Fold this protein.
Amino acid sequence: MNSFFAKAALVLCALSLTVNSPSQAKTVKTKTTSSSKVSKTLPKKEEQPTVKIEAARAVPAEELWRKVAPQLPLPRPFNMPKVESYKMDNGLEVMLLEDHRFPFASINLGFRTGTAQEPATALGVAEMTAILMPQGTTTRTSKQIASQVEYIGGALKSSTDYDYSLLSGSCLSAYSDKLFDVMCDVLLNPSFPADELSLRKANQIQELTMKRSDPDFLIEERFSKVVFGAHPYSVVSPSEADINKLTSKDLAEYHDSHYLPNNAVLIVVGDFDSAKIKPLLESKLGSAKWKQGSVPVAAEPAMPAQSGRKIYLVDRPGSVQTSIKVGNVSIKRNDPSYFPMLVANQILGGTAHARLFLNIREAKGFTYGAYSKLASRKEPGAFFAEADVRTDVTNPSLQEFLYELDKMRTTKVKDDEIQAAKNYLAGSFQLGLETQGGIAQRLLEMKLFDLPNDYLETYANKVVAVSVDDVKKAASKLIDSNNLVVCVVGDANKIKEDLALFGPVNVYDSEGRLAPEQTVH
Amino acid sequence: MQTNKLSKLFANLALTALSLTIYCQCPAAVAQESEVKVAIKKPLIPVSKDYTLKNGLRLLVSEDHSVPVASIAIVYDVGARDEVKGRSGFAHLFEHMMFQGSQNVGKVEHFKFIENVGGSLNASTHADFTNYFEKVPSNQIELCLWLESDRMRSLKITPDNFTNQLETVKEEKRMRVDNQPYVPSSIRLEELAFDNWGNGHPTIGYFEDLEASSIKDVKQFFDTYYAPNNATMAIVGDVNSDEMVKLVEKYFGSIPRVEAIKRPDLSEPAQTHAKSEKMVDKQAQMPAFWMAWKAPARREKDFYALNLMQTILSTGESSRLYQRMVKGDKVALKVDASYEERRGPSLFETFVVMKPGNTPEKVREVLMEELDKFKKEPVSAEELQKAKNQILRGLFSSNSYASLQRSLGRAEMLAEYGAFFGDPALIDKDLETYMAVTAEDIQKVAGRIFNKEGATTIDVSPVAKEKVSTSK
């Protein structure tokens, strides 16, 4: 941890937003309801005094004017940043956004191909290519690349997701030219050194072993396998065998056919001079240096339809909590019902005053946080709700999830709920544009998911336009507690019999192997 | 936290620091690249108002009208180190109670009011302080003042809310600590390394202490620590300073101050004998170890050199430990060094997950060699400059904890410097001090800290595996 300031190793918060611990923040919320059929297991403390403790300091006067929240002026308009966009001869899209508030700049290259386009015979090739690119070029070793970037107050990140890959760098802006120079080398001349690949393969396999003790990984792996079936979104991590197969030649071939200018967008944000950078881009990344080509496109298999409610239980003996994740396939990122569904998700579980949180945490005390998420991708991603709960309330918690899902589907949301959800979405979108990184992220999202060019400007209006009926329609299409994937990670001996009340239970070990003798119907 | 003596100097004085913008050439940029200069505007965070109310609440405002966003941070001078034996974890449990409603704000409405305007909020409890914060569209800053003042003056404490939050905190402990590999051992490390219970007990607390606490404790804690003269507030963003003074007077002015707070003795004896323990971790898959040394408090003389050493050791892939242990000797899967800086006795911690086929003894020797290197050879000018530039990165990049790009990052930094050290101008001073650290300084500080007698070690091993027979 490198800090100007002090930081605790484990920062404890009221909400899991700014956590520093190995665990991942979960997001969900719920509303308090009285109709739950679950027994109230609120632990009681008998010896607790019911009132009256003498005040050690004076109680302030009542001050009646405090009763209501202050009336506030209208918001000041958020002036959307001015972005200069153009396309280079080789097809590379360029977006430039100057921001001189801080002596810092970032250069982001996004590619419209990710792991979903990997051939089934070479799982892991996209990720390994991304990881190995900064590990050596024809003229620089991995250590030279890292030292040169870090010397300029920089960092370089090369990564891949299901639908896209990113090569992003940032540094103190006085040194932007140096960063650009190193990034171009990493982009155009990676050498995929054999020794670096072999170390990375060994470490990735050992890291995979470590992940098999992480409940977040285990639940994500099982959930994706079931929800996405034969579609590549089902692969959360390549297997040991997949990793072992990869060769430097595979990576070089993948790089040459996917890291192409006509498959990419370049976004530069920060303290730089557009007039100076344009000729530099042309000389370093123009058609003379970076030729366009044809990007192979693989057909992606359909996703399975779920029928019935099934429980997929990953056994984690000794687990002190149960992780629950319920959901199904959702919609594409550019689907017309994206905004209604986004609002529906917000009401169900987007924040700390949404229904799931209010119910499962604030009313029941079962969990530290319960949230839902619309994870839309280029192809339909997932819609899910999740929480980590204490083991002895696994069933009551699941019951609450089903109750809240049904309610979203069958009942119209209230006017104040939808208003609150829309305010949150529109407001937080704008607040996210405060930093250079926040803007770059939104611009990348727009380009990599093929969203309209007025995405930033029209986002708030699209959110505001969503009606109560739109939410009902989207929720009834996407949420169905009867045809639902229920994934659970926990101590199977303690919870599997009870879980069978909700549907047939398949039990897996942490390696992902089905244990038929343990399956309960 | 220590008592905020300096802030008393400012009592009842409305100081308007001039927000002069001075451009200075950072002494950084030398070596390697020729003639590159990083231009840094100072002050890093221009203070447009520094005002202390009669009841002792200090307000720092920094105007920035570039985007219609404003952030507020309130630091209360209370943390886990103020807890008494038998009530560990209470500062944090109390922080949860602050979201359970007050005289005019219902349970959980704090979340609702802020999120309904698109804002974000949270609070965090540390060993040496607790902070509460919101980021909102700038027209909504008064809403934050209304909410924060209501809970500072009239927190609603009911048995039901308390029971509910007790369960929530226990779940937080299970999720973040008990159910995570290597986290229980990191907590054990601090217990063992510190000799003073006040420093060594975990902020999350022990289950038995949490369960033994009652709403009587909540009331007492509130009465003792949650008062205006134990708080420092910073507002940063698209606001008017004079208007902020008026509003803060309106909302907080009538909240009574409390008497001087008694603080525990947090002194730590120097360590003269190495300590070590072994632990089995049910959640871990790979053997690992922690190794720690007692370290200076924030802003003490050796603090800056030690922070630069942390950077040289483990920030980025070019760092020494990564290059030696992960890349070179290939004995580690993961290696990390962190400086757990506090306002009082602190720790410098290292953590290594070992690759199969290595013993902790052998890997520790490699680690010690790297630490000893600081004592034997001065770091090169280039390596030192790299570390300093990474400190600058921490200030100017978008997402770091201390990021000045975020109005909330600036508000937190102002509130912390105001609360801890009395003077926000020390932020600029600290940057200068970092930039002035020499290779010789590092050599001396390493000699004072990294010795065998002062080390505390925890070896962590996974449970031996018994394979359940399963089939595909």
User: Anything to note?
Assistant: The mean pLDDT of chain B is 90. The CA atoms of residues 155 and 165 of chain B lie 14 Å apart.
